[in-house]
Structure formats: structure tokens, C-alpha cells
Design brief:
Elements: E1 2-6, H1 17-24, E2 28-32, H2 42-49, E3 54-56, H3 58-63, H4 65-69, E4 77-81, H5 89-100, E5 105-108, H6 113-116, E6 131-133, H7 144-154, E7 159-163, E8 165-166, H8 172-176, E9 186-187, H9 190-204, E10 226-231, E11 239-244, H10 245-249, H11 253-256, E12 261-265, H12 272-278, H13 289-296
Parallel strand pairs: 1-4, 1-5, 2-3, 2-4, 6-7
Antiparallel strand pairs: 7-12, 8-9, 10-11, 10-12
Length: 306
């Protein structure tokens, strides 16, 4: 049996009882290490599970899946995934490969950022397409994510923006020379994310904020668009910051703290209850842009609950 098991978002204790029971009876236990990370070291997982944990890199999962599936028709093998195990297409591919080899499988779900973002107060049924924001370079600034975000904003839906992580990445030079030397891990901070979003916004809508310009109006004007940063969601140190895109872009990387991070761009269908709940973390308090833009741009009046 191949068990594909979600680990949740925080530490070794986030695994479900059913997941832990499965891990303890497995002959081999793999930990997928490239779509996300836990906030604890692998050794803590091993101590809690009572099993050796084998790190599975992207190369292992995508190019050497036969090793993961080896003998899984006769013995139990666990494949551990941070968050929910089916949040990334890589893992559905592994299940399909197992099925083609007549290996029985069982998926054990857990919390992921897609569900834990409810801690912002925003309702999941008001979200549109989720997008991924990669690190920009001097020569590469991919912006297909912007089109998906605009589609969401046109119908008033919120957008979850998943921020890039780089694990076991090679520099262009080392890759060209065939050297297996890897760069230190990098995790995108909201400070970088908002700077990149504003860069793409200005490239897509140059002059859109100029009243005399004939440029089409932007759906994501930084001073007129609400957003939130989500840091270490699901952990004891989670932090949420709300404000306009322009306000959030002014904060430093230190203001957001350690990884992992995500961002939400707020759509105009936001309900007053969502507005009030998320507004508890807004920049500037009662005098911040969160409330002003909500009323003047989004057309949402506050509901008082005290």
C-alpha cells in the first residue's frame, strides 16, 4: 500500500491520528521537501513517528518515482506532504503511477493554506483562482499570474497568491557546467511579493493612475486595492497584516518575519463581516487605508459588532 499523507502546516504534531497510525506501520517513509516545508527539523519528525524519514527531492519524486513505489504492492510505504497531500499536481501523478502498477493507495488529508486562510476571516467561497508568484530576475519577470488575478477581480473574487520557494536550486552557471552545487534555500517574503506585484501592475497599466491618461483603468491600483499578508499560518507565531497594496508594499521584510508566507488580494464582493474580521490587523488602525478604500472604492459599509 502507498499511503499519501498530509502533515498539516506547523510541526510534527499536526499529523492526524489516522496518518500517524499509517506511518508507524510503514517499511519506508518519504518526506516531500520541495513544494513546502514544516517549521521543524526532520529529526523531530523521526523522533515523533518512530521511523526513519527519507527526504524526497523534486528529482526523486518526478524522475525516480519507481524507487518510492518499489515493492509497495507487498509492503507499506508512506509519502508525506506538508499541508494537504493533493494540493500539488506532482502528487496526483504519483498516485496515477501507483495505479498503473496495480499498487493500492490511500490518501489521508490534512489542513493546508487553502483551508487555513479562513483565519483571515475571508470566506473560501469568495475566492477565485489561486495563483503562484515566482521570484523575478533581471531577465525574467513572468506575469501570467496577473491575468488570473484580473479575472478574479473582474467578478469581485479574492485571490490567494502562493509565494515562491527555492529548495535545491542551481545557479545558471552551475547548471551550465553540470555541477551539482545547490543554492541556499530561499522563501519569498511579502515585501518582495508586493514589490513584484507593483512592478507588473505598472508595466501592465502605465499611466493608469493619471487622470488625463487614456489608458484603461486598472483593476489593481495599489492605492485602491485591499490585500493581506499571511505569515506562518497554522503556527503559534502566525501573523496577518491587512491594508492597501500600497501600504503593504511599504513594510520591510522584517515586518513580516520568518517564512512561510502567502498573500491575498481582496475582491470587491467582500462581505462586511469579512471586512470587519480582517480589519483587526489593518495598518494604521481606524485611520488606515483599509477602511477608507473599503467604503469609497469597494462600496462596503462597516458593521459594528460591539
Amino acid at each position: 500500500m502507498l499511503y499519501v499523507i498530509g502533515l498539516g502546516l506547523s510541526d510534527e504534531k499536526d499529523i492526524t491520528v489516522k496518518g500517524l497510525e499509517a506511518v508507524k506501520k510503514c517499511e519506508r517513509v518519504y518526506l516531500e521537501s520541495y513544494t513546502s516545508i514544516l517549521m521543524v527539523e526532520k529529526e523531530k519528525l523521526e523522533a515523533f513517528y518512530g521511523r526513519e524519514v527519507i527526504t524526497a527531492t523534486r528529482e526523486t519524486v518526478e524522475l525516480e518515482s519507481d524507487e518510492i513505489l518499489r515493492d509497495a504492492d507487498r509492503v507499506d510505504v508512506a509519502f508525506l506532504v506538508v499541508g494537504d497531500p493533493l494540493g500539488a499536481t506532482t502528487h496526483t501523478d504519483l498516485l496515477l503511477r501507483a495505479d498503473s502498477l496495480n499498487i493500492p493507495t490511500q490518501t489521508i488529508h490534512n489542513a493546508s493554506i487553502l483551508t487555513a486562510l479562513g483565519s483571515t476571516g475571508l470566506q473560501m467561497y469568495n475566492f477565485g483562482q489561486a495563483v503562484s508568484l515566482p521570484f523575478y530576475t533581471e531577465t525574467w519577470t513572468p506575469d501570467s499570474w496577473y491575468d488570473r488575478m484580473e479575472e478574479n477581480l473582474r467578478v469581485g473574487m479574492h485571490t490567494l497568491v502562493l509565494l515562491d520557494i527555492k529548495v535545491r536550486e542551481q545557479s545558471e552557471e552551475n547548471m551550465a557546467r553540470g555541477r551539482l552545487i545547490y543554492e541556499p534555500p530561499r522563501f519569498m517574503n511579502p515585501h518582495t511579493a508586493f514589490a513584484q506585484m507593483l512592478l507588473t501592475e505598472s508595466a501592465r497599466h502605465p499611466g493608469a493612475s493619471d487622470a488625463d491618461s487614456d489608458a484603461p483603468a486598472s483593476l489593481c491600483d495599489p492605492a485602491r486595492t485591499l490585500a493581506l499578508s499571511l505569515s506562518r499560518i497554522g503556527t503559534a507565531t502566525q501573523r496577518i497584516v491587512a491594508g492597501t497594496l500600497a501600504e503593504l508594499a511599504q513594510l520591510s521584510a522584517d515586518d513580516y518575519g520568518a517564512p512561510l508566507h502567502s498573500v491575498v488580494v481582496v475582491g470587491k464582493r467582500i462581505h462586511p463581516l469579512e471586512l470587519e474580521f480582517a480589519g483587526r490587523w489593518c495598518i494604521g488602525g481606524e485611520g488606515g487605508g483599509w477602511w477608507k478604500v473599503a467604503k469609497e472604492v469597494y462600496g462596503v459599509e462597516r458593521e459594528r459588532f460591539h
